[in-house]
Every structure is written in C-alpha cells, then in structure tokens.
Amino acid sequence: MKTDISPLPNITPASWIMVGILGFVWGSTFMVIEIALTGISPFWLATFRLTIAALVMAAFWGVDGFRMGTEPDNKPHPMALIWAGAISSGVPFLFLNWGQQYVTSGFAGTSMAAVPLVVLPMAHFMVAGERLTIRSVIGVALGFLGVFLLVGQDALHSSGADLEFWGRMACLTVAFCYALNSITIRRLPPINPTALTTIMMASGALITLPFSLAAEGLPGLPPLKAFVALIFLGVVSTAAMNQLRVLVIRSAGPTFMTLVNYQVPLWSVILGAWILSEPLPPTLILALALILGGVMISQWPSLRPIVRRIFAQL
C-alpha cells in the first residue's frame, strides 16, 4: 500500500486549505460577476477585470525578476501567446459576462464543470499520446447528458426565451474556450507560469478593448457596489488565485489541483441561491450531478492515488 501512494507530491493540510480557497473564490466569481453587471456593462467589465489582473500579475512577475523561464532556442512564438490570451481570458470573459445577463450565476458555474469533459475528446485528436479509454468515454457521455439538460427544452420554455437560450450557449462557449486553452498550454514550451499568466491577461485586455469601445462606447463611473465587485474580480479572483493555483500545483501536483473542478460549480449554485436568491430548478441540480459524476468517472485513474493517500493518512 505504501508503494502505491509514496510517489505522489506531498499533500499537506496547507494543500487542502489552498485548494479549498481556490474552489470557494472561483465558485463565488459568478455571483460577483452578477453584482458587477448591475453597474458595469459586460464588455467593459471584461476589459477592466483583465487590465487590473494584468497590472497585479505584472507586479508579481517583477518580484520574480521578469523571468521567462524558457530555453533561448525554445521560446514560444508571440502569436502563440496572443492566441493563449484570446482563448484563456479575452474571448471567454466577453462571452461569460454577456451570457450572465440572461442566466443565473449557478447556471454559469455549472457550465464550467463541463471543461474537463471537453478536454478529453479534444486531447484525443490534438495531443500525442492522449487517447480516450472506455472509462473516459462513459464519463464524457454521462457528463454531456448533463450538458444537454442545461440547454434542453427547459431553456426554450423559460422566461426570456431566445435571450436566455443564447445566454446559456454563451456560457458553454466559455467552457469550450477554457478546454481549448488547456490543450494550447500543454503544447507551449515550458514557461514561467507568472510570466505566462501576465502576458495572457494583458493580451486578453487588448483583445476586449476594441469590442468594448465599439459595442458600448466610453464607460461611465460605476456605483460603489459594482466597483468593489470589479476590484475583487481583478485582484482576487483572477490575479491572486492564479498565483495560488501555481503554489498548489508546485506543492501538491496538477492532479490534486483538479479537485477544484468539483468545488466551483457547487459553490456557484450554493452562493447564487443563498446570496442572490436564485431559483434551484431540479433540472439544474440533476445536470450538475451528471456532469460532476461524468468528470469523476473519466478522471478516476488520476484521482484514485489521492483517495488512497487520504485513507492511508486517516
């Protein structure tokens, strides 16, 4: 038994605290976006959030000596970094903010749970050595049944009709972008995570800026509540949590980091219902259970050593 669990990174109580904080803060992000949207238009919210995050991340990067951490002959192409910024933050933040005008924060958070399900079939075709197994196919199929429930007949017959349906599709597009970004990051040469995040946030802000100007004109001064929500999104949800994510991966490993995927949708649903008094239709709860169940089945070979370690430490 000891041989099975010893190769894992050192998972300490601090690891659990950090991954718990990540899950809670990222899960609360969708609720905070709803609050920010009461005083800031969706596209400008994306631009401001990314600009603030890029500035904070640049400060972290400066402390690190603006180190890129790449070999001189193996630097990522600038267009690859711009593309990573577009699909990691620029495009998904525009879609997410626009979509959350017409859907609940709980729905938006549940949609993000589909990211690992999209990554698996995408990696099968785009990453060498990544192949779907029977277990992962079953997990993906179960999860996508949950996704179908999210945008099924209930969406077409709810209040808001077309706008709500397209809001739901916008949120699922965000999940697709995040999955594609996951593959893109894998294919980049090794690079300092702080440098990569800073560059992606800055390029994302530059990408959203023309859309904000063209669609919404010059921004006005937001009310205090929306402004505080914006600062939280830029400084805490985006910049600080990306740094915490790096600490978790370096100390406890990327597999342990996947536990965040199970927390985010749960917190988004709980906080949306508790703080914003959002409804909890049975369809949403069932969809969430199917998606998380599908993710767990598809990721079980990676999660099993962590479960063994937990029981060995009890």
Number of domains: 1
Structural class by SSE content: mainly alpha
User: What is the number of E strands?
Assistant: 0
Helix and strand element order: HHHHHHHHHHHHHH
Range of strand content: under 5%
Poorly predicted ranges: 1-7
Terminal CA distance reads 14 Å
Q: Report the major sheet.
A: none
What Rg, in angstroms, do the CA atoms define? Answer: 19 Å
Average pLDDT over all residues: 85
Number of separate helices? 14
Shape: globular
Helix percent reads over 70%
Written account of the structure:
The protein starts with a helix and ends with a helix. It is globular and about 55 Å long. The chain is mainly α. α2 crosses α13. The chain has one domain.
Features:
single chain, 78% helix, EamA_dom, transmembrane
